[in-house]
Amino acid sequence: MNQKEKQIMDAAQKLFIIKGFRVTSIQDILREAKIAKGTFYNYFNSKNECLMAILDSVNEEIKNERMKLVFHEELDDETVFIKQVDVRFKMDKKHNLMALFHSIPISDDEDLKKFMEKHYKLELEWIANRLVDLYGAEISNHALDHAISLLGILQQGMYATKLFKMEMKKTEDVIKFALQRMKQVIQINQSDTVFFTNDYLHASNKPKDCENYKEVIIIQLRDLMSTVQNKKIHDYLQFLLEELQEKKPRLYLIESVLESLQKELKIKDMEFEGQKISQLVWRFMERWKNENSSTKAFN
Amino acid sequence: MNQKEKQIMDAAQKLFIIKGFRVTSIQDILREAKIAKGTFYNYFNSKNECLMAILDSVNEEIKNERMKLVFHEELDDETVFIKQVDVRFKMDKKHNLMALFHSIPISDDEDLKKFMEKHYKLELEWIANRLVDLYGAEISNHALDHAISLLGILQQGMYATKLFKMEMKKTEDVIKFALQRMKQVIQINQSDTVFFTNDYLHASNKPKDCENYKEVIIIQLRDLMSTVQNKKIHDYLQFLLEELQEKKPRLYLIESVLESLQKELKIKDMEFEGQKISQLVWRFMERWKNENSSTKAFN
DNA sequence: ATACATTTTATACCGATAGTCCAAAAATAG
DNA sequence: CTATTTTTGGACTATCGGTATAAAATGTAT
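YS: structure for the whole thing
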């Protein structure tokens, strides 16, 4: 990593910890890092990208710590597992990420969302594997089930302890609590049906990017078109279909037509359908704008 | 509710659903509601307040639906409970609130945070009570424990199904899954120790407001002062102590001194302490700014 | 109907923000 | 030393949330 890049990241990290991510402006970072604006944008295209870089390094740190913990220990040692899990929460606390990391789907930035999702999946997978380490291959069918449940109890427990100001409780205690409960589930559960089958984790992420989005929308539009015979609505839908196929869809036109379409649909008592379409198209437009506004690095 | 107010809320709600909360600007709302800016600020002091009003109405709706569901049914009927829980998730889906409601601590706005916390507690309490309805007074000790765990599995399960694009699964299925797991815990768990005792729910919220914050900070500062003999650091701490007591603390001064203090502490290998203090003071200043910038309604 | 009070509108304004652009200075590499 | 890359500093745009205000519209009591 470049020296300047590190300098920026350190400054940003410090401010994120002290002030919090959202209230830290790029201006703040520049001041703290004693750096010009151009330099910042030389390394990151946005504050979000900077955050992702920091999170990456934090995750790297977590990974290393966890590896160190298990280095000369047995894989099926529960106390080791607890400590390993604790690494994440301790780190989150240290970096003031509690809010950020565990409220994954909040961001409106598609890239950040994807980033969070990726790391969420990795964490789930890690937990699932470790649970198999701990409780044997018999539970591997239910590994993902259990991982999701455990993570759920963990997060909720952490949040609750914070909310209830139970500062006396250490994060480790919460983990022990969660694991205790999970063990009870695990013991009984062997015969039960699997809800989250393991292949979900690796199911090739149906690419949900801009292009694919378009296809989904088009299908939805065609669907809707075939069920409605009203001329006006039909025309609107037809226009949307065509405009979305354009290389440079005129967003302002789409926006306007969408508005009218929704009104028409509402008259026909199909408000819900209108909302659904609008929602999809809006998301598409947001994405399109992002992809075409800045010349982003492809990584 | 006023007619105009409803008009605004409807417009806002529609946009929040379609575009999402964060990307919807107040300007958008004005356009959608065909209303002047002044009118908006006549009813709400901010976008956040508007959101809270909407969420309040949604919560009201949820409450009613749940009451209807249990009206002529038995309280210990599991299927009724499942449907009741489902009301929330269905509603969240309908209003595109998934992300918002379940990522509670994200906001930087203190009021919104408090609002979210309040409703989170209410939901926890409701679940805890319903669990007692279902499984008898014997579990009432563990009711909060179980409520937290259940909510954790629920949220995590919902998020995972969405992430894995398991659209075939209905929200009800996820609830059944979560409840299934919880039942196993509940059955065994009777003898186990209680982690979240019920009184946490009603523990008079130690007021964490601006004034109280100050006290905490002052204690921390005194603490630190007594452990450090370095003259410079001592002076800085002394200044902070005095300035924070002022009616109108000069934030820019505090900011500057904080900066220097942190540097000094870093030299003495007490970076962590520096961060902690800075964090506290920053939060205090944020809060102070909010409380003193606008003349807010006291409600 | 008239006079008064309240609400609404339209618009200008403020400060802060993210992000772009560019020419000149500085650092670095060959 | 020269050529290239990086960095700087500032100007610039557009948008945002929010304030302020005068004038117009609306409602209300007599």
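YS: worth flagging: Residues 46-202 of chain B form one domain.
IM: good catch. Also Residues 187 and 198 of chain B are 19 Å apart (CA to CA).
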